[in-house]
Amino acid sequence: MAHVSAAERRPQLIKAAIDLMAREGVAAGSTRAIAAELGVAQATVHYTFGTKEDLYRAVIEHLTQELVEQVRQTAPADAGFEETVGVLASALWRTVRDQSRSYQLLTELSLFALRSPHLREALEAHDLGVVNVTAGLVAEAAERTGQQLAQPAQMIARFFLAGFDGLTLQRLVHPDDEAEFSCLQALVSSTVALARGRVEMVAVPRDLAMGSVSSA
């Protein structure tokens, strides 16, 4: 049998892990099961990645890069700021609808990673990466269209992603096309309003929000 290098085997194992866990869940993603999915020895997984957590990290990075690249490719080059945000949001939402298994897997991996010190670092990098990419797209659209941002691009990105993550979870739990589309439109409108300074910032008690109130 011809020797296959670790560099060649790596993407094959990532795909096998994604196919298996998207179909059966993260709990089913043992190195033995992933090796069987590809038809290789279990030792091949450990030789290529070291540990299961390293393979999971690669899966998170791959899914994130794949989804972000799809959205980048749809970014309009000559549209206004509001239209640009709307197009990007629609493109991102299309990936949720078309690749719901990938989003469900990302959600499961994120929850799993919160309880794994080794993976939590990867999760934080994933989250920061998504925020930075989104903030970059917002900043690029603002610069191209001459739109002055009333809030930092990072804040606008976090606001949008928080709402989008909520819609994604609702989609996974209880799909409702009409309600989702209306909420997506509201999220885009709110994001644009925040960027343009048309949202009144309501004071939030910082001590309550940050948990600094001592008990009586």
Automatic annotation (TrEMBL):
InterPro entries named in the record: Homeodomain-like_sf (IPR009057), HTH-type_TetR-like_transc_reg (IPR050109), HTH_TetR (IPR001647), Tet_transcr_reg_TetR-rel_C_sf (IPR036271), TetR_C_31 (IPR041583)
Q: Does the keyword Lipoprotein apply?
A: no
Asked if the Swiss-Prot or TrEMBL record annotates the protein with the keyword Transmembrane helix, the reply is no
Query: Where is the chain membrane-spanning?
Result: none
> Keywords in UniProt for this one?
DNA-binding, Transcription, Transcription regulation
User: Which residue numbers delimit the DNA-binding region?
Assistant: 30-49
One matching Pfam family is: TetR_C_31
The HTH tetR-type domain covers: 7-67
Classification via Gene3D superfamilies: Tetracycline Repressor, domain 2
Superkingdom, natural source: Bacteria
Name under which the protein is recorded:
TetR/AcrR family transcriptional regulator
Organism phylogeny: Bacteria, Bacillati, Actinomycetota, Actinomycetes, Kitasatosporales
